[in-house]
Specification:
The structure holds 2 protein chains of 2 kinds. Chain A has helices spanning about 10-15, 20-45, 50-65, 70-85, 90-115. The relative contact order of chain A is 0.18. In chain A, helix 3 packs antiparallel against helix 4. The termini of chain A are far apart. Chain A is elongated, with a radius of gyration of 14 Å. Helix content of chain A is about 75%, strand content about 0%. Chain A has a single domain, classed as Four Helix Bundle (Hemerythrin (Met), subunit A), CATH 1.20.120.160. By secondary structure, chain B is of the alpha+beta class. Chain B folds into 2 domains: about 10-135, Rossmann fold (3-Layer(aba) Sandwich), CATH 3.40.50; about 165-400, 4-Layer Sandwich (Phosphatase 2c, domain 1). In chain B, the strands form 4 sheets. In chain B, strands 2-1-3-4-5 form a 5-stranded parallel beta sheet, with helices on both faces. Chain B has a 5-stranded antiparallel beta sheet with strand order 6-17-16-13-14. A 5-stranded antiparallel beta sheet of chain B has the order 7-8-11-12-15, with helices on one face. Chain B is rod-shaped, with a radius of gyration of 36 Å. Classes of the chains: A mainly alpha, B alpha+beta.
């Protein structure tokens, strides 16, 4: 599995129309929100709760889409589909990969916010 | 970053906090007033309390999805015309179509880009404000039209009041009339005036065109003939103190001077006659009007053909007078060309001949019945459509003398 950097500065600035302040605001919200969604995903996988998995993965997918991080987006989407199809075969493995990648993304994001002088 | 001129209100509905905040932050920075809702229920509640100018609406949400919220907003009077932009994932084409079918005006795909969000929002708000303006202008027009219609009805009432409501009570004379304007108010008018114990004036005029301008000219002329007696009664010579009644030729000449065509950009035709009840004599003149008919009891009919040009040409020709001795049972019929020019659905004109025949056919009936029957025949000829021109018909019958 490839490692970061996950964030493409240029693409982000295009999406946020060069508005660094807006990026910082949304990134901070994401940093706060994403771990909660990740916890819900883990719990759903542990319990085998397909509907909860589908919902939480859908939410994380939506949030991360704002930063164009495909690796996290694709993993979240896979988990959303697993929830939809009640297919837990690969769930634990995918969940670990998602958690790891998300952790790296969040670290990188924090650094980027500090760097942009917020 | 362009500030919105007035704080337009946008309701952002998305269960995803990051997405919701992203949209709200983009829009707040452009000066819009924002309310946020995290599910369908909250969206409906805020839409009622906040009332928004625009709604950004996510599709997949707990407690009522976006389609359901859209349907309910479209059912409420308050939010029926509020544009709705759906928020959909790039991959879900079917949702975009379903959203537009549900009454959504546009959609924005996730992930959101700041530029696209602002462009689509501005577009929809612009359309919304133009639509509102259009609705407002339209309401104003409807209101004005209503007031115009009311004015026109009032004017028609006034014009009708100038028609012979109470025909003068003349010894041995009965009268009847029919009038149907092509629009609410018309360009025809007629009346019978008592001048002195033995004399009555009878006139009928038809101003070119119809509607308000023509009607106003009819009012002006009829007021002049009614009030300004000097047109009817000429000043006598200095040594003779008994007033003399102006002859029909003199009245028409004076109208021709008073109403040159340039004055109102209108001309008119008129028949003017003086009935001498003591002598049983009729003196008339005609300014370009269809000739009146004189019907005798024995079934013969005469056209009263003397006269001159239409009124308004400035005295190019004199107004010749005709004189007739009347017998008991004679009927004088005045009418406007609207009757002769009534068109059948196939396009033919009613014409002089049919009019003449309809009068003969009904001549045995009492005067009022005769006029009713002739008028009915003329109307029936034109089929179900209303008249294209004003229709006037006036009849006078002599009982005494002869």
């Amino acid at each position: 599995m490839s490692k970061g950097p996950w964030l493409d500065r240029e693409q982000i600035m295009e999406q946020f129309d060069g508005d660094e302040e807006l990026f910082a605001e949304i990134a901070e919200l994401f940093i706060e929100d994403a771990p909660k969604q990740m916890t819900r995903i883990r719990e759903a996988v542990a319990k085998g709760d397909a509907l909860a998995l589908n919902r939480a993965a859908h939410a994380l997918k939506g949030s991360v889409s704002n930063f164009g991080v495909e690796a996290v987006y694709d993993l979240a989407r896979s988990m959303e589909i697993m929830g939809d199809e009640s297919d837990f075969q690969e769930a634990e493995k995918t969940c670990d990969a998602l958690g790891k990648t998300l952790g790296e993304l969040l670290r990188e994001m924090r650094a980027l916010i500090r760097e942009s002088g917020k | 970053m362009g500030e919105a001129s007035t704080a337009e209100r946008i309701l952002v509905v998305d269960d995803n906090a990051v997405n919701r905040r992203m949209l709200a932050a983009i829009l707040e920075r452009s000066g819009y007033e924002i309310a946020e809702a995290r599910d369908g229920e909250e969206a409906l509640e805020k839409a009622a309390r906040f009332p928004p100018d625009l709604v950004l609406l996510d599709i997949v949400m707990p407690k009522r999805d976006g389609f359901e919220v859209c349907n309910i907003l479209k059912e409420r009077d308050q939010t029926r015309d509020v544009p709705i932009i759906f928020l959909s994932a790039k991959t879900e084409v079917r949702d975009k179509i379903k959203g537009l079918e549900a009454g959504g005006t546009d959609y924005i795909t996730k992930p959101f880009s700041k530029g696209e969000v602002l462009a689509r929002v501005r577009n929809q708000l612009r359309i919304r404000s133009l639509t509102r303006e259009l609705i407002q202008v339209n309401q104003e027009l409807v209101r004005k039209q209503k007031s115009l219609d009311e004015d026109l009805k009032a004017a028609a009432g006034i014009q009708r009041s100038l028609l012979p409501q109470n025909l003068p009570d003349l010894k041995n004379v009965s009268m009847s009339w029919k009038f149907l304007p092509s629009e609410l108010i018309g360009g025809d008018i007629f009346n019978v005036l008592r001048l002195d114990a033995d004399h009555a004036a009878i006139y009928m005029l038809d101003v070119s065109g119809h509607g308000v301008p023509s009607a106003l000219v009819t009012v002006s002329v009829s007021q002049m003939l009614q009030i300004r007696g000097d047109h009817l009664i000429q000043d006598s010579s200095p040594c003779d103190f008994s007033p003399r009644i102006a002859s029909p030729g003199e009245v028409l000449a004076s109208l021709d001077r008073e109403y040159p065509m340039e004055r109102f950009d209108k001309f008119f035709t008129i028949v003017y006659m003086i009935l001498d009840l003591a002598k049983g004599e009729l003196v008339y003149s005609n300014g370009g009007h269809p000739p009146p008919l004189l019907m005798h009891l024995d079934g013969t009919v005469e056209y009263l053909e003397k006269g001159g040009t239409i009124i308004g040409l400035g005295g190019v020709l004199p107004f010749e007078q005709g004189k007739k001795s009347l017998k008991r049972g004679d009927r004088i019929i005045l009418y406007t060309d609207g009757l002769l020019e009534r068109r059948s659905p196939r396009g033919g004109l009613y014409g002089k001949q049919r009019f003449y025949e309809s009068l003969i056919k009904a001549s045995r009936a009492p005067l009022e019945t005769m006029l009713d029957q002739v008028f009915e025949a003329v109307l029936a000829f034109g089929g179900p459509s209303g008249p294209e021109d004003d229709l006037s018909l006036l009849g006078i019958e002599l009982h005494g003398k002869g």
